């Protein structure tokens, strides 16, 4: 019986050439023309020099760029743009442990019932409760210092300048927030506050509207030398340090500088927020009027500036 199946002759040499051609094509990638590289460079490099991340630029201009985020990194790696790798935020940074300080505590028993295990137990019982992390950012030793207030749900950060790193300076700021926002809004925004063991945070009752079991607000403390337990605010401090490197004095700055700095940080488009800014997400969750009460305003994506030039160029 004759086989009726279709037959094909196999030619090894020809087959090998075809396979090599397919493999070569798959590895070639997209070759951009000089004109296309110039167009991309004109969009991307000036904004990298402003301190904007590649993801931020790509998210705000992807309809114009018409390429992937990875392609941008490849062009930078291959030195096809004016911007160089040294101007990009470092992708990996080792954090050194802080040295402990022996400072005066307003309430020596402030950690009782407010430790990390208490925080975990509270959040487990109330999983939908918004969390706010607070911290200090130092300038020169003994000089002005920042208080940062970071809303975890929107990654939005408020920055306040203080003359000294004292517990009273922190409680004064939260008292001002209370009177500015009103009790209902304050309680809604600050039901849980997480901070470290700095002496400036040892008056929790002032932030909790009196403290006690019936308080509508609750302050909790991370374990000693464990900044990773409030890693979100620590990561956001990286944006501050792009403008004010560690060791920079804050003594010549004022609250208007803090507002300008936070507006630029809060306008950064973030991968964690699906390409939206902290300003946009906070407005959606808590209302734009809340931001207006604090004088917070957005910066357009192309104008976000996160280099020392931001405050150096401000008219005073």
List the helices and strands and how they pair.
Elements: H1 12-28, H2 34-48, H3 54-65, H4 69-77, H5 116-125, E1 131-138, E2 145-151, E3 156-162, H6 167-181, H7 183-189, E4 192-195, H8 204-207, E5 218-221, H9 231-243, H10 255-266, E6 269-270, E7 276-277, H11 278-286, H12 288-293, H13 309-312
Parallel strand pairs: 1-4, 4-5
Antiparallel strand pairs: 1-2, 2-3, 6-7
GO molecular function: nucleic acid binding; transposase activity
Organism: Cloacibacillus evryensis
Protein name: IS30 family transposase
Written overview of the protein:
The chain has 13 helices and seven strands. It has 316 residues and is α/β, with parallel strands linked by helices. It folds into two domains: 32-86; 116-312, Nucleotidyltransferase, domain 5 (2-Layer Sandwich). It has a five-stranded mixed β-sheet, with helices on both faces. It is elongated. The N and C termini lie far apart (99 Å).
Relevant terms:
316 residues, alpha/beta, Nucleotidyltransferase, domain 5, five-stranded mixed β-sheet, two-stranded antiparallel ribbon, 13 helices, 7 strands
Globally, the shape reads: elongated
Question: What fraction of residues sit in β-strands?
Answer: 5-15%
Structural class of the secondary structure composition? alpha/beta
- Which superfamily, in CATH terms, is the homologous superfamily of the largest domain? Ribonuclease H-like superfamily/Ribonuclease H
Report the major sheet: 5 strands, mixed
How many strands appear in the DSSP assignment? 7
User: What is the CATH level 1 assignment of the largest domain?
Assistant: Alpha Beta
Count of DSSP H/I helices: 13
What's the number of domains?
2
Helical amount: 40-55%
Order of helices and strands: HHHHHEEEHHEHEHHEEHHH
Q: In angstroms, what is the radius of gyration?
A: 26 Å
User: How far apart, in Å, are the first and last alpha carbons?
Assistant: 99 Å
Please list the strands of the largest sheet in the order they lie side by side. 3-2-1-4-5
CATH architecture of the largest domain: 2-Layer Sandwich
CATH topology name of the largest domain, in short, is Nucleotidyltransferase, domain 5
